[in-house]
Specification:
This protein has two helices and ten strands. By secondary structure, it is α+β, with helices and mostly antiparallel strands. Strand 5 (96-101) and strand 6 (109-113) form a beta hairpin.
């Protein structure tokens, strides 16, 4: 993963998601994929865009104080679909305080919440995209591509 891409992706994701709240969940066509939605509730006078995080790889919820992250999908415990949804429900309406890509090698995504918990999403797969995050229906998007790369779309430019 290119350092410049990492910095640009973190800046865009923080600009979009910081202070938003986990708002909803949409089921995928199988138990694996999951789409989370986020919304900025603090500014109700302005029509803020709906934000999304599409998860297509393994993920886990980290308790407050956890400072060590999984290095690969193999280190993430398998959970039932019901167990995953119960974890998401625990996080509903939690404000996002920071978004990070926590590895120099792969775009592992970490979303930190006000209550100290974090969602960790694996960012490495040799064949598939692991996650996408951005504005619903708009052109601002960050995607973890196969082979540990990032694609970044902004309003001003085409994919990098």
């Amino acid at each position: 993963m290119d350092t410049k891409d990492k910095i640009q992706a973190e800046a865009l994701l923080n600009n979009l998601f910081q202070h938003s709240q986990l708002d909803g969940v949409q089921f995928g066509i199988s138990p694996g994929p999951l789409m989370l939605s986020f919304f900025h509730y603090q500014n109700t006078d302005v029509e803020d865009p709906q934000l999304f995080l599409n998860i297509e790889s393994k993920w886990c919820l980290l308790n407050p104080g956890v400072k060590q992250y999984p290095l690969s999908e193999d280190e993430i415990v398998d959970m039932s679909e019901e167990g995953k949804l119960l974890q998401i429900i625990r996080m509903r309406r939690q404000p996002v305080i920071k978004v990070e890509l926590v590895s120099e090698d792969a775009p592992h995504l970490l979303i930190r919440f006000e209550n100290g918990s974090s969602i960790f999403i694996n960012g490495h797969d040799d064949e598939y995209e692991c996650w996408h995050a951005g504005i619903e229906g708009e052109s601002e998007l960050v995607s973890a591509l196969p082979g540990q790369e990032l694609a970044i779309w902004t309003i001003e430019e085409e994919p990098c």
